[in-house]
TrEMBL record:
GO CC terms in record: plasma membrane
Organism name: Neogobius melanostomus (round goby)
Coiled-coil ranges (or none): none
PANTHER family (UniProt xref): G-PROTEIN COUPLED RECEPTOR FAMILY 1 MEMBER, PROSTAGLANDIN E2 RECEPTOR EP3 SUBTYPE
Keywords on record: Cell membrane, Disulfide bond, G-protein coupled receptor, Glycoprotein, Membrane, Phosphoprotein, Receptor, Transducer, Transmembrane, Transmembrane helix
UniProt-recorded name of the protein: Prostaglandin E2 receptor EP3 subtype
Record membrane topology: Multi-pass membrane protein
Subunit structure: Interacts (via C-terminus) with MKLN1.
């Protein structure tokens, strides 16, 4: 799931609804805006590609047989994020290149529902995978005997397939008339029309998405917390840092969007209303609406950032940075590796 709906220029939001006479400013703004989704796409693709390579190498090592279920989960998450970028980023970039006019690239009207399905599928799958990996690691550490006897790679593959199918079926509900995907402000992406009670089944679909997301967050945080508390004396410093990092990143990135969606549902408001307000006045929305729309876009960008950070907090940072902690500490303090290891063991 990739959210590339807005960007920041000089501390303010760059929006395609400026005065018609200000051609130079609008062209410059568009040039900057198309660079932002490209940079995000490249960053995410590099991180997830590296994660897939490391997972493949680790999976083939005999000494990592007990970790194969966890490696399958990480590889599945990285592959999903990578496909999400490949499917949605070109659409967003095309809209920017078309002066933020969606109709120029989607005259048939089918692209918006496709974009919405991708957003919902990849977003929920990432959240569910975070929960699955939290449960898997907690089980492996707190109940190793049951884990070694029952948690086979075949079971993991079946669970991943079931999660994928359930998430996809849920995302397809608006296609069969339960809910609706609409263009969201500033018109570069499509998502659930939160707060729109006129569409049949839309409130059910929007509330269910937000509820599933929040439930997944709570499950992930609970099992990560249990893992740290139950085994903190046996875990290395780098593992504790990684677990805490995963918890903090997931909470900071996803909770604003999910909570805001529930608020928008309760107040019967939707971010696509910003488009109609802006279109009527040909100006940036007024102060109240402007702040609300920008806050929604900020929440979207945080969710997007989580998708890019996933391979780093789950795998790459552990492989590249955390295991080099003592080497960097030695370079700064000029202590020997033995002294550094003693300091780490004390902590």
């Amino acid at each position: 799931m990739r959210f590339y709906a807005a960007h920041s220029v000089g501390g303010g939001w760059c929006i395609g609804t400026l005065h018609e006479g200000n051609i130079t400013k609008n062209s410059s703004c568009r040039s900057v805006s198309v660079g932002f989704p490209i940079a995000m796409m490249v960053t995410g693709m590099v991180g997830n590609s590296l994660a897939l390579i490391l997972v493949y190498i680790s999976y083939r090592k005999k000494e990592n047989q007990r970790k194969r279920s966890f490696l399958l989960c990480i590889g599945s998450l990285a592959l999903t994020d990578l496909f999400g970028q490949l499917l949605t980023s070109p659409i967003v970039i095309s809209v920017y290149r078309a002066d933020l006019k969606w109709d120029r690239i989607d005259s048939s009207g089918y692209l918006c529902p496709f974009f919405g399905v991708c957003m919902t599928t990849f977003g929920l799958y990432a959240l569910f995978m975070a929960s699955a990996m939290a449960i898997e690691r907690a089980t492996a550490i707190t109940n190793p005997h049951w884990y070694s006897n029952h948690m086979k790679t075949s079971v993991t593959k079946q669970a991943l397939t079931v999660i994928w199918c359930l998430v996809l079926l849920f995302a397809l509900l608006p296609i069969v008339g339960v809910g609706k995907y609409t263009r969201q402000w500033p018109g570069t992406w499509c998502f659930i029309s939160a707060g729109d009670r006129e569409v049949p089944g839309n409130m059910f679909f929007a509330i269910t998405f937000a509820a599933l997301g929040i439930f997944s967050l709570l499950v992930t945080l609970s099992f990560r917390h249990v893992t740290v508390l139950k085994t903190v004396e046996r875990l290395t410093t780098e593992t504790v840092i990684q677990l805490l990092g995963i918890m903090c990143v997931l909470l900071i990135c996803w909770s604003p969007l999910l909570v805001l969606m529930l608020r928008m549902i309760s107040t019967q408001t939707s971010s696509h209303e910003c488009n109609s307000i802006s279109g009527k006045t040909n100006l940036v929305p007024g102060r109240g609406n402007h702040l609300n729309c920008n806050f929604f876009l900020t929440a979207i960008r945080l969710a997007s950032l989580n998708q890019i950070l996933d391979p780093w907090v789950y795998l790459l940072l552990r492989e590249i940075l955390l295991r080099k902690f003592c080497i960097m500490a030695n370079a700064v303090s000029n202590c020997s590796m033995e002294q550094c290891n003693d300091c780490q063991n004390q902590h």
